[in-house]
Amino acid sequence: MSSLYTFGIGVGTKNARGEWLEVYYPAPLVNLDPEMSKVMRSVFSDLGSDIEPSPEQLSSLVSALESNNFKELAGVIKTLQTTDKCIVAVLQDKNLSPKTVPQGYLKLHLLSHRLVKPHQTDISGIFGVLKNIAWTSFGAIDIEELPERMLESRLSGKPLIIDCVDKFPKMVDYVVPKGIRIADTSRVRLGAYVGEGTTVMHEGFINFNAGTEGPNMVEGRISAGVFCGSGSDIGGGASIMGTLSGGGTEVISLGRQCLLGANSGSGISLGDRCTIEAGLYVTGGTIITVLDDNKNDVRKAKARELSGQSDLLFRRNSVTGAVECLTNLSAIELNSELHS
Amino acid sequence: MSSLYTFGIGVGTKNARGEWLEVYYPAPLVNLDPEMSKVMRSVFSDLGSDIEPSPEQLSSLVSALESNNFKELAGVIKTLQTTDKCIVAVLQDKNLSPKTVPQGYLKLHLLSHRLVKPHQTDISGIFGVLKNIAWTSFGAIDIEELPERMLESRLSGKPLIIDCVDKFPKMVDYVVPKGIRIADTSRVRLGAYVGEGTTVMHEGFINFNAGTEGPNMVEGRISAGVFCGSGSDIGGGASIMGTLSGGGTEVISLGRQCLLGANSGSGISLGDRCTIEAGLYVTGGTIITVLDDNKNDVRKAKARELSGQSDLLFRRNSVTGAVECLTNLSAIELNSELHS
Amino acid sequence: MSSLYTFGIGVGTKNARGEWLEVYYPAPLVNLDPEMSKVMRSVFSDLGSDIEPSPEQLSSLVSALESNNFKELAGVIKTLQTTDKCIVAVLQDKNLSPKTVPQGYLKLHLLSHRLVKPHQTDISGIFGVLKNIAWTSFGAIDIEELPERMLESRLSGKPLIIDCVDKFPKMVDYVVPKGIRIADTSRVRLGAYVGEGTTVMHEGFINFNAGTEGPNMVEGRISAGVFCGSGSDIGGGASIMGTLSGGGTEVISLGRQCLLGANSGSGISLGDRCTIEAGLYVTGGTIITVLDDNKNDVRKAKARELSGQSDLLFRRNSVTGAVECLTNLSAIELNSELHS
Questions:
Q1: Domains in chain A, number
Q2: Contact residues on chain C for A278, CB-CB shorter than 8 A
Q3: Which site among B202, B239, B276 would you substitute to test the A interface, given the most A Cβ atoms closer than 10 Å to its Cβ?
Q4: What residue numbers bound the domain in which C31 lies?
């Protein structure tokens, strides 16, 4: 028997019709080792569907885990045994797209727990799987049950505060990975990969299936699918084009030690040590005047032809209005390539 | 007797001096039908001033509504009968500007319940009517009562969280209209008109008396007074100039299927199917180089002369720095007009 | 004996190891008058270190304050006497950099209580002093204690909402100074100086040791260290470069009645009555074409050479793409200087 791809056991919320709204997995796993996989298979036979474990199954799981010395996970499950809330377990033997709410949430947890990087786990179709929910001071509430709950809470004097009406909750409701700061937590969605040493300032944003290698300073917007290498700095209000809405089809990434200036933007991928000056938006179709070390115009190129190259500096010439590309840090290898 | 323009009965908060701070109307009405108007007039004689109904009035209202088969509203009022909170009813026989806090809140509710579109109801003077309030985890609190409450809550170990200090609360504290998503609810004010199928992403914003026809994707800022037609996409960080501060005097609207690129901006109205490329801000005074189908320069125009026209694409030429206007989708009718 | 520089007594939170996480000072003082200083010195002998006062010390302090007619502060301390939370007092006889969490919080309080302006109190090294904390619906929680608390709160059905994971909390958790509005309170950090009459809209942001003289409209981002004179308007999404990350080394200030247009930015200081048009980012290195009253090109200058001058209007010529500087309001003195 092959090892399991992922396992999660968590506690979640259902609506009045008994449908899952969301699930919190305190200790999800990916690429389980053979022993752990064996334990799981011994307790749960029905892979692929959501399992609402019986008290007996939970006891068996704790015993099996303890006797195999998986004490940490056993401890988590013992805590789950004490609740009257809905418990659910999800197991996948392969990396499959999510078909249910508990599966979707497990995939998003894998990303935010840094167990997989963006694009490493299959989340295709997740928009269709997740439900639009009100995230409130009373927990997750089905949109349809909201008017009644709002009136009720008003009349009882216990305010119902709604932070978010969305398919994706904020990450920190589920996990706060080690070594990060997020000044306004509403700006990072569950499913973001926030690398250690990342600071997300008030104007920063990270979508799901996107993120930073860490350490990084994020004061601009990292769209779905985008990944930024370590040391790169996304300036205040800077934009990186995604593929979901208004953007193109290329999945964008930034290498290491790049700088997107404040209010700048990129519609192309950048290699390492690239800079886009403050206020300049480089789209794939921008015609770039490429300069050599002596700042002579050597050729024109569409920005997308420069996509992914390193040591580039993009600016708009403040006298001529032309968008220019210089070699950043006067990297010789790059220059020779630009001249060819 | 003419039919009533609007009716609302709700529950609200007063400060220690007995002044209204805010009111929540679960089921506001506009342009009441004659039967409903008659019911209201039979119970409430004093139109135009805020009514704090007696228990007897509430009972009469429920009876009159039930006997006229207005069961839904009767149900809401029956729920209100159970509370010890402050109840208020507002009736207007004409569309008049708000003179009191309950009237102001009713007007804002009409907009967010999609009962009227932006500019359809008179809210002139509302800034002077509404009070600056702290919106907290304990509900609305008068600013002057705040220091004492903050200290008290600290000492009792029950944190007082303040989300907003403003005259306008966030919309979802009062209504979550059908078929929308708002990723960060603090970004949509009560009084916004959020059309069905609208998604407001984390960087999106909608002010009061402004909004979207729906469906729309909103990742930028829709200023007070601005209305966006269906299918239009406001890119991340895009700005639409309002008339309140720093902007001009023209009330701006966008037609259908427009695209404001990320970090772009508009100081003019757009017709249908217009695009402003990412990073370009078109103000009314921007001198536009108008191009024909062959990209020949046919004339110069101030952007405000193009205001409201359809099928335009605005870009900054990345070689010459000139702001250009092309015909979007090569619409022939438009081109001929541009040539004239 | 000299007068004390600052005094604060407050209530705060410690982690499980007994380390201070944060402190709330309801009534901090700066530049104490000699009588008040004498009272403090009579009760607290140990200046410079954090004092956790005994019940006897609190009683002595109340008596000494009352007998010297400092009734307001006496009243605050009497309220503090009723709590079982951790109390701490900080006294400094000189303006010294903070060495402990209670000292750091006191400095930030001085700024947000408007007792000192940005750069007037020594906060050097504060990043190293403050701890990264989760700011939650249950108050401040140590990051390391978070996973356990999150699971616990889930199982008990009382959601733990985390608003912020950062070294700096939002200002309004500690003080709401008089005469301001902040539409989204998560956007103003403790340590911001928010002058009376300032409105911070949803897209506005003010960092610590930065702020506005008031009245001001803030719809853009005021970075750490930046100060804006009265009447200046920071447009939606506008950026002011700070010195912490990605910016230069010059501490930027804006004079009075300046306007930063929407999505504009400044990397230089501005004097009074300057305007940067919507969408234009002026960095220190931007080459500016300086125009005279007849809009003739009189010279080129790097933007940083114009830093701090008054009555300038910056725009990007929409035909030539050149960044130009005109004299705003045709101020004659300025013009003559520009011609020289």
A1: 3
A2: 239, 241, 265, 267, 281, 283
A3: B202
A4: 6-120
- List beta partners, residue A206: A188, A222
DSSP string, B100-169: SHHHHHHHHHHHHTTSS-TTSS--TTHHHHSPPEEEETTEEEEGGGHHHHHHHHHHHT----EEEEESS-
Co-location of C17 and C97 in the same domain? yes
Active site residues of C: 219
C116 and C186 together in one domain? no
- The answer to whether A82 and C156 are in contact (CB under 8 A) is no
Q: For the domain that residue B26 is a member of, what is the CATH number?
A: 3.30.70.2010
* Residue A318 forms contact with B (CB below 8 Å): no
CB contact under 8 A, B283 and C263: no
Pick from A134, A161, A323: which is nearest to B176 by CB?
A134
CB-CB: which of C157, C164, C165 is closest to A85?
C157
Clarify whether residues A157 and A283 are in a common domain.
Answer: no
- Sign, CA dihedral A281-A282-A283-A288, equals positive
CA–CA separation, B30 and B91 (whole Å):
10
- Cα–Cα dist C195/C171, whole Å: 13
Q: Does A76 touch chain C (CB under 8 A)?
A: yes
How far, in Å, CA of A106 to CA of A181, rounded? 23
Distance between CA atoms of residues C106 and C94, nearest Å: 13
Does C322 lie in the same domain as C208? yes
How far does C1 lie from chain B, in Å, by closest CA?
33
Residues A317, A185: one domain? yes
Nearest CB among C181, C263, C277 relative to B132 is that of: C181
Query: C258 to chain B: nearest residue by CA?
Result: B246
Which chains, if any, share at least 3 CB pairs under 8 A with chain B?
A, C
The catalytic position among B203, B213, B219, B277 is B219
Q: Do A295 and A180 reside in the same domain of the chain?
A: yes
**Could you give the ipTM of this predicted complex?**
0.94
Give me the residue label for tokens 């009405």. Answer: B29
- B235 within 8 A of B262, measured Cβ to Cβ: yes
Q: Give CA–CA dist B14/B19, Å, rounded.
A: 5
- Taking the Cβ of residue B164 and every Cβ of chain C, the question of whether any pair is shorter than 8 Å is answered with yes
CATH number at residue C182: 2.160.10.10
The verdict on pTM exceeding 0.90 is yes
Residue ranges of B 13-72 with Cβ closer than 8 A to chain A: 24, 26
Selecting among A219, A250, A277, A337, the annotated active-site residue is A219
Unique residue bearing structure tokens 């708000």: B98
Known catalytic residue at A19: no
Can you give the pLDDT of all 340 residues of chain B as single tens digits? 689 999 999 999 999 999 999 999 999 999 999 999 999 999 998 787 899 999 999 999 999 999 999 999 999 999 999 999 999 999 999 999 999 999 999 999 999 999 999 999 999 999 999 999 999 999 999 999 999 999 999 999 899 999 999 999 999 999 999 999 999 999 999 999 999 999 999 999 999 999 999 999 999 999 999 999 999 999 999 999 987 655 566 789 999 999 999 999 999 999 999 999 999 999 999 999 999 888 899 999 999 999 999 999 999 999 999 999 998 654 434 334 434 4
The reply to whether B238 and B149 lie within a common domain is: no
- Asked if the structure places residue B1 within a domain, the reply is no
> Considering the domain boundaries, does residue C129 fall inside one?
no
B324 contacts chain A (CB < 8 A): no
Asked whether residue A1 is domain-assigned, the answer is no
* Residue A141 shares a structural domain with residue A96: no
In a domain, C130, yes or no: no
The answer for A 241-280 residues in CB contact with C (under 8 A) is: 259, 261-263, 277-280
